[in-house]
Amino acid sequence: MTSDHAPALPLSQPIRVEAIRLRGTEAVVEASAEQLAPVAAMLGLASLEALGARYTLSRNGERVKLEGRITARLHQTCVVTLDPFPVKLDVPVKLDFAPEDEAGAAARRGEQDDAEIDIEVLLNEEDPPEPILGGVIDLGAVTLEFLALALDPYPRKPGVSFEAPAGEAGAESPFAALAKLKRSD
């Protein structure tokens, strides 16, 4: 979600909460040809050929449940060879939204729990809901966030492996050199 001081996202598709039906509203996000290059630059991609998402949003009062999938065709740069290589992504998305004050209260409850000395891990505990800002959910921002999370931070071209450079023949390890210095004292 963007604030007044944050730069505008290259993909934005706001939907008003009151436009979401109780039994479900279908929404499609499709990046235009003009949006692909700025999204690729923002995410550090070699290129982005296609980006789309299909969501089902359902409303219960002021709370919203979003479920769907993001698909993308892109090129990432291999960290070993520095060559771009193709990547296809199909990312499931599931989020809950609540009005900003309710979402903030849930997050604060989580922070208060963290302040306690005893640590209890709840494996099935759900994340607090995302805030609904000004009665609007930006499906473009959701799409960009989940795409960014799905990207491999250290992409490697298929079949490429990293091999450490071989040391010089007969080279002494730095620890062996330190050990010799210590013995000579």
Please specify the SSE layout and strand pairing:
Elements: E1 14-16, E2 25-30, H1 33-43, E3 47-60, E4 63-77, E5 84-99, H2 100-114, E6 130-132, E7 136-138, H3 139-150, H4 174-184
Parallel strand pairs: 5-6
Antiparallel strand pairs: 1-7, 2-3, 3-4, 4-5
Keywords:
185 residues; alpha+beta; five-stranded mixed beta sheet; two-stranded antiparallel ribbon; 26% helix
Report on this model:
This protein is 26% helix and 32% strand. The chain has a 5-stranded mixed beta sheet. Strands 1-7 form a two-stranded antiparallel sheet. The longest helix is centred in the middle third of the chain and has 15 residues. The protein is α+β, with helices and mostly antiparallel strands.
Can you summarize this structure?
The protein has helices at 33-43, 100-114, 139-150, 174-184; strands at residues 14-16, 25-30, 47-60, 63-77, 84-99, 130-132, 136-138.
Q: Number of DSSP strands? A: 7
**Continuous helix count:** 4
The proportion of residues forming helix, as a percent range, comes to 25-40%
- Strand order within the widest sheet? 2-3-4-5-6
| Mean pLDDT rating | 84
Fraction of residues in β-strands: 25-35%
Please tell me how large the radius of gyration is: 24 Å
Which ranges are low-confidence, i.e. pLDDT below 50, for 5 or more consecutive residues? none
**Helix-strand sequence:** EEHEEEHEEHH
- Secondary-structure-based class equals alpha+beta
Report the principal-axis shape: elongated
**Main beta-sheet annotation:** 5 strands, mixed
Ends: how far apart?
62 Å
